[in-house]
Amino acid sequence: MKNNFYLLAILTVFLTSCISVNVSSDYDSKTNFSEYKTFAYSKYRIDNAEVNDLDKKRILRALDAELQNKGLVKSNDPQILVSFFTKSNQEVNVNNTNFGWGFGGGFFGANMGTQISRSTQSVLYIDLIDTKTNALIWQGVGSGYLTTSSVEKKEAKIREFVSKILEVYPPNSLK
Description:
Layout: H1 2-18, E1 21-27, E2 38-41, H2 43-47, H3 53-69, E3 73-74, E4 80-103, E5 106-130, E6 135-145, H4 151-166
Parallel strand pairs: 2-3, 2-4
Antiparallel strand pairs: 1-6, 4-5, 5-6
């Protein structure tokens, strides 16, 4: 029984660590999303996003591909303006590695050291704005850890962020 508990705990940790991008969305429930066919980017909002120019280009390429897969067409007279912004959260994890041995009535312990690791959780917000009313009609948010070990991995991770966020758009099609 004890072994099953440990196996279940290890499996749970493994499966939750495989979830690379957590996604949520919010939208105006009165909006008929099937009416929107064209999009463009909000230059002002994107220019002010706190992300470097290389990552902006990566996000824009990923957005182009995903929005076009959804049937939207880029236009000079758009029905939707697309905007995005980012945030990041620094996390510091402190792990004390303690080992102890039980011996008769006594307990002997040895502190093998402390490990400190830092990671940055990235958050990407994608906003869709109705051009007629200038109102936010949909927002998707994705959070996860952005790999920076290579350009290819970073590009793949950004595509994954955008793809996962836009998986739940349009919300009317989910009903």
